[in-house]
Write a structure and sequence with these properties.
Peptide Deformylase, 6-stranded antiparallel sheet, two-stranded antiparallel ribbon, 8 strands, about 30% helix, globular, binds zinc ion
Length: about 200
């Protein structure tokens, strides 16, 4: 089932994800729904905060990236990308590997119409658990590493606009204000003013 994607201005996008302790059917269903939602929205990644849950969980699918952008190894091996995608990462922690940074244009499903250049470390190592709780180490460079960092940021309540330069923020200002207004409107509709008096 596809889920509603939360938009900039909704408070959950600023919440730090809770560690996941139970690797049960509910978690597997949530990850499956997130993958379905990511695909329906043509995304390469989706974090729990983006479907309204503050959890240390995100999904990625970078199998459509050109092979030259797919520099990675998983637990010391390089399985074919189609075997490991889509991937759900639980309780992920990101370690930046020493080396250079790279700048690339990013978008985000929670920010329709907003794009901007983001500079990030080129290579990272991610420790995470799969949906059965088994621990893994994923090392990635380039675009794959960029996607992992963008999604990990979401689980920490950090958004890609936090990495924008002040000039880029000014360029996006109108769009960001529109999104914030829409989020406020939605919140108002979801909590009618006199709901506490009803049934009294
Ligand atoms: Zn995003």
């Amino acid at each position: 089932m596809t889920l509603r994607v939360t938009r900039y201005g909704e408070p959950v996008l600023r919440q730090t994800g809770k560690r996941i302790e139970r690797f049960d059917d509910e978690l597997k269903q949530l990850a499956a729904d997130m993958i379905e939602t990511m695909r329906a929205e043509d995304g390469v990644g989706l974090a729990a905060q983006q479907i309204g849950r503050a959890l240390l969980l995100f999904v990625v699918d970078v199998s459509m990236l050109p092979p030259e952008d797919l520099d990675y190894d998983l637990d010391g091996k390089r399985p074919p990308i189609e075997l490991i995608m889509p991937m759900a990462l639980v309780n992920a922690q990101v370690k930046i590997l020493p080396g250079r940074t790279a700048t690339g244009e990013e978008g985000c499903l929670s920010f329709p119409g907003v794009r901007g250049d983001v500079t990030r470390p080129l290579s990272v190592e991610v420790s995470y658990q799969d949906l059965d709780g088994a621990p893994h180490h994923l090392r990635a460079s380039g675009w794959f590493a960029r996607v992992l960092q963008h999604e990990f940021d979401h689980t920490q309540g950090v958004l890609f606009i936090d990495h924008f330069s002040s000039r880029q923020l000014r360029n996006a200002e109108t769009k960001l204000k529109q999104l914030k207004r829409a989020a406020r409107q939605r919140q108002k509709e979801e909590t009618p003013e006199n709901s506490s008096e009803q049934g009294a």
